[in-house]
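note to self — DONT lose this again. spent like an hour looking for the file last time. sequence + predicted structure for the chain T wanted, 303 res
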Amino acid sequence: MNTGQLECFVQVALNLSFRRAAEELHLSQPTVSKQISSLEAELGGALFVRTTRQVLLTALGESFLHDAQEILRLTYVAEERARRQSSGNDLIIAYSDSNELMRLAPVLDALRKEHEGLHVLLQQGPRDNNVTRLAREQVDVVMGFESKPLATGGIRFTSLIDSGLSCIVRVDSPLASHDSLGVEDVEGLPQVLCLPPSVRRHGSAATSDIPATDASHTIRCSNSSEAYVLVDAGFGYALIPSLYTMPDPFHKVIAWQGRASAAYGLYHRDASRGGVVPDFIRLASEFFGEPAYDRPLPETWNL
């Protein structure tokens, strides 16, 4: 069994067509058919039922499809990991909220100047999944809020900033007249919450700073983009980490009163292993407090 056979099988299974699979793989149709036949011979059974009108998966084909996709995924991951380790000048950064990236540009700008030929990949996904991928060495650094139970098994957390909360409202909202808000100001109002786990955690000393609005008037979001959309759609004010806010003409960012906050930073493996990661951590600690929109454009951009 080889990746060529598996790639042909997966494409035929997804397209239910040998012709379309051949087009996707840039192979001839006889080549695809030969690969499928050899794979069927190894597995000891037919993977497809083929007629003049259609191609269908057999029971064996349906059960084998997931395994084939997982084998290919692991193969590609292993190849990418080996390629990155041999080059030593690539950096894969995982993040969970798109607004986290606003403060990343100054860091990468400085890193690029220190490492000629630097290649950076940004990959979005749930924070916990990102940390699991870090443990498997599929990414180099994970950006996110601290959650102490995750910082184990050789994974370390470097804090960059302590982020409080901000209230986001439309500029036409009655709340927009306030410079700061607290629990008593929004009591009973519909709300959108986008809170890091360390603030949501039951028993936190800061939970008294989070409005206890009835569940029917509360929408919980996994990222700030969702929160902004729901505010625009009239579902109430949004409470999000101040780190995720940015100036725009359609919303007002209002300071939130209270102690609710969480440490934000980088999950990484032992920095003594060398490579680009230690320099990224150092520069992030230096520059992360500077949002990209507060910095002047590079000279080459001044048109």
